Structures are given as structure tokens and as C-alpha cells.
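Title: Comparing notes on inverse folding

I've been comparing how different people in this forum approach sequence design from structure. To keep things fair, I'm posting one structure and asking everyone to reply with a full sequence. Here's the target:
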């Protein structure tokens, strides 16, 4: 019998499916629940167990992991008679890997404590590729003892794993991450349009730029998206729009000015308003092209 903790995984989307599969590969027993039957079938095919409800998934779990789109979804699966807090056993560890507001994480930890359930907020960065390759950056908020217990599990999912502070700290760092990523993608998109309109060989230009100070993980990951105009979602504009709302609101609460971030937040919002919300966030290129008079 395995001595590894039993895992319940709630939310099997673009990120959740490959992450849960990496835990299965690492030897963990994973029971999952999500709304889409095809995602449950995928989990079962990978060696996991599909559950028919949240209650069924979490009932015998030592660790419950959630990966859903936003704060409302976290609250929907956590609270209420059919939710995690009412059905997980006392002493279980709840790890929320969604990207949500810091306050939602703080409130969840407080409510869970009343049920004898420990909580870590542990959002990730690295996109679908990072999830598949198990090289995610994981930023964690919560108690040191709970982090220590969860660290072997995190090591099956990512490479950079850091306890950032108390509950909500992981979400605060993730908000900063999303600010940096959005501004970086926007800068890359503007450079691409500038280079193309100048008649420069785009591939050659991006290769040399990525080898110097302008190089970044964002450019490395998104270079082919720009070159091929391939905007199949690894991380959707809709979700980055949500995240930019989180960071601008959190910054306002602490009195931090985000002048460039505010502009990029509006550009993300405009792209979504034009019907591109389901595309990858590298589709910010389309917004720059429109502003530059290019037909898209």
C-alpha cells in the first residue's frame, strides 16, 4: 500500500488535467471531480478515479487540491452543504491552486479552520506548457508546517516552490506575476508589429532579442505564437482580464500606483470586448495590430 497521501482534485481544465496527471505519474492516488465528462474520462484513462460529486471526491482525501477559474468558483466549490468544507474530513489539507483575490484566500482559510481543515493558497505560473512539463512556479501562502507537508507534492508539479508568507500571500505574488506577464506580452506584441512594419525578418529579430537583455521567459514561450499567429489558448485572455482586475484592485487597496499596468489592463479588456477573450493572452498582438491599422 502506498504511504503517499490520498488526493482529491477539483477542477480539470487546461491546467488541472496535466497537473493531476503528473501527481498520478508520481505515484499519488488521485480522485477527481469536474463538470465536464470528457475531462473525467481523461483522468480515468491516466490512472485516476472519477468521482460523481465534490463530496464523493473529498470524503476520504488527505489532501484536497482545487484549480478553478476565479474567486466565485472557489467559493462555490468550498462552501455550502455539497462543498469541500462540509464534506472533507477534519485534519485534511486544502490547497487552492486557483488564481483568486488574496482576500478570498484569507476568508477561506478562516472558514476552513473552524472545520479543522488546514489551507494553503498556492497559485502557479508557467501556463499549460509549464503544467504539462511539471516546471511550474508555485507561490504559496499559509503556515510553514502545512507547506512542509505539501512540498513533496508540489515538487511533482513544479520547479520553483516558495512559501511567500501567511494566507493570501501566494495570491498577492501571483497578482504581481500576472502584472509582469501582461506588460511583457504587450511590449513583445508592440515590438513584433514595429519590426514587421519596418520590413525586418521577424524570426531573426526575435531570436537575437531573446538572447540579450530583452529576452524573457515570456518571449521564449510566446515567440512561436507571434510568428505563427497561433493563439490557441494556453492561458486565455478572459482569465488574464480577471487577473488584471485582481492586481489593480489589490494595488488600490494598498496605495500602490500601477500606471503601465492600468493601461495594459484596459488593452486586455478591449481585446476581450472585441470577442478575443477565448484566445491565448499572446493575442494582445491582435490589439496592437488593430491600433496600427493592420487587418486581423
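Reply #1:
Here's my take.
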Amino acid at each position: 500500500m502506498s504511504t503517499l497521501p490520498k488526493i482529491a482534485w477539483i477542477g480539470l481544465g487546461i491546467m488541472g488535467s496535466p497537473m493531476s496527471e503528473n501527481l498520478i505519474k508520481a505515484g499519488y492516488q488521485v480522485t477527481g471531480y469536474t463538470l465536464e465528462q470528457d475531462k473525467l474520462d481523461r483522468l480515468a484513462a491516466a490512472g485516476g478515479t472519477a468521482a460523481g460529486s465534490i463530496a464523493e471526491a473529498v470524503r476520504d482525501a488527505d489532501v484536497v487540491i482545487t484549480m478553478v477559474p476565479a474567486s466565485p468558483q472557489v467559493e462555490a466549490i468550498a462552501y455550502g452543504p455539497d462543498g469541500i468544507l462540509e464534506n472533507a474530513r477534519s485534519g485534511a489539507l486544502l490547497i487552492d491552486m486557483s488564481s483568486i483575490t488574496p482576500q478570498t484566500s484569507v476568508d477561506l482559510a478562516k472558514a476552513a479552520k473552524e472545520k479543522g481543515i488546514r489551507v494553503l493558497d498556492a497559485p502557479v505560473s508557467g501556463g499549460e506548457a509549464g503544467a504539462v512539463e511539471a516546471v511550474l512556479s508555485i507561490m504559496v501562502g499559509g503556515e510553514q508546517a502545512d507547506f512542509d507537508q505539501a512540498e513533496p507534492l508540489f515538487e511533482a508539479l513544479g520547479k520553483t516552490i516558495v512559501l511567500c508568507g501567511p494566507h493570501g500571500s501566494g495570491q498577492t505574488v501571483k497578482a504581481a506575476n500576472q502584472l509582469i506577464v501582461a506588460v511583457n506580452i504587450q511590449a513583445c506584441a508592440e515590438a513584433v508589429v514595429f519590426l514587421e512594419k519596418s520590413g525586418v525578418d521577424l524570426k531573426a529579430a526575435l531570436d537575437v532579442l531573446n538572447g540579450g537583455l530583452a529576452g524573457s521567459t515570456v518571449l521564449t514561450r510566446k515567440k512561436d505564437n507571434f510568428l505563427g499567429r497561433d493563439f490557441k489558448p494556453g492561458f486565455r485572455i478572459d482569465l488574464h482580464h480577471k487577473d488584471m482586475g485582481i492586481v489593480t484592485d489589490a494595488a488600490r487597496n494598498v496605495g500602490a500606483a500601477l500606471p503601465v499596468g492600468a493601461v495594459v489592463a484596459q488593452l486586455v479588456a478591449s481585446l476581450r470586448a472585441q470577442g478575443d477573450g477565448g484566445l491565448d493572452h499572446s493575442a494582445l498582438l491582435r490589439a496592437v495590430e488593430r491600433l496600427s491599422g493592420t487587418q486581423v
